[in-house]
Every structure is written in structure tokens, then in C-alpha cells.
Here is the input.
Amino acid sequence: MKIREAKVEDAKAMIGYLDQVAVESDNLTFEPGELGITIKIEEKILAHAQASEKDVFFMAMENNEIVGNLNFHGSTRKRIAHVGEFGISVRKSHWGQGIGGQLMDELLLWAPKHGIRKINLRVRADNEAAIRLYARKGFSKEGLLRCEYMIDGICIDHLAMGLVLEERDDQ
Ligand SMILES: CC(C)(COP(=O)(O)OP(=O)(O)OC[C@H]1O[C@@H](n2cnc3c(N)ncnc32)[C@H](O)[C@@H]1OP(=O)(O)O)[C@@H](O)C(=O)NCCC(=O)NCCS
Here is the structure.
């Protein structure tokens, strides 16, 4: 397994990957078939991320296929240029092999080189595997976001988690 940054030419494969993980997990913001992004739009998103100092898409690749991804989004506005948020997913067939952890390690190396000092994420409050992974990487729970998802008419709470990079134990 190798991790690299996504390129514009990865747009088609990225859409195929996202459609697949939507089927495999209820923890993402989109349902199966709902992504609604064309290859052209995805190319623009990836081109923007490549050009922006505060955005990055990492892909975990195995046998030329995407098996995991992490996308981080920041801002160039001065007051919030030090902070950003990421989303992460791994193909179900590859869960529990350390890929999620390695994608986060890439982000934690990338972030300080791009002026990021605080990383945020939101996670379903019942997504224990993900919360354990984030806690292991130093993230702490910052607050409960009530009824962030509505699935089959049922409210699902989320946790806001964050990491101030200079407060990491291994700094
Ligand atoms: C959450 C998610 C990204 C985690 O990815 P992952 O690759 O399975 O994560 P890791 O393998 O790094 O860590 C998960 C577990 O595997 C264990 N693990 C790590 N390396 C391992 C290895 N080499 N061999 C076996 N197990 C390993 C970890 O100890 C961890 O165990 P734990 O659950 O007891 O803490 C993945 O489950 C996923 O995509 N879920 C669906 C989408 C989702 O929930 N996204 C998050 C939205 S906020």
C-alpha cells in the first residue's frame, strides 16, 4: 500500500471509489448513488486542491486501485488560515490494516508545513472505531453536535474532535 496526493487524472477513479464506499458505510455524508459529482467537477475539485496551499487529497493505493482517501480543507483567510477539517474513508475490505492511521500520519506531516496548527473533524457519535483511531492520534472530543444526520427519520448526533498540533504529546 502506498499513499500519494491525488492528481487531476485521478478524478474518474476517485468518483468510482466514493460511490463504492457510500455503499459500504453509513458514516459518510452521502448515500449510495447520491454523490452527484461528474468527472469534470471532480477534476476541478482536485485541480483546486493541487493549487491551494491549504487543501490536500491523499489516496491510499494498492495494485493501482484506491483503497482509502483523506481530504483536508483549509482557508487562506488570515484568522482561520491555521485551521482546517478533514474527512477520511477506507474500503471495507481493508479496514483494520492500519490504512486509516497511515493516512492521518500523512496529514500530520503535511499540516505544519502548510501553516496548519489546528485540525478539526466531525464524526458520528456512535462510530467507535473511528473515534478510537482519532483519539490514538491525539484528537480530543470538543463537543456534541446534536442531530447532524437524519437517517430514516432518526437523528444521529456527531462529535466535534480537534487537535492543536503544538499540544501533541510527541512534540
Ligand atoms: C474509520 C476508518 C477510516 C478507519 O480506517 P482503518 O484503516 O480501518 O483504520 P486503522 O486500521 O488505522 O485502525 C483501525 C483499527 O485497526 C487496528 N490496526 C491498525 N493497524 C493494524 C494492522 N496492521 N493490522 C491489524 N489491525 C490494525 C487499529 O489498532 C485499530 O483498532 P481498534 O479499532 O481496536 O482501535 C474506516 O473504518 C472507514 O472508512 N470507515 C467508514 C467510513 C468512516 O467511518 N469514516 C470516518 C467518518 S468521520
Remarks:
- The CA atoms of residues 19 and 48 lie 21 Å apart.
- The two ends are 27 Å apart (CA to CA).
- The pocket of coenzyme A is lined by residues 25, 27-28, 88-90, 95-101, 123, 127, 129-130, 132-133 (CB under 6 Å).
- Residues 2-167 form a domain with the Aminopeptidase fold (CATH 3.40.630.30).
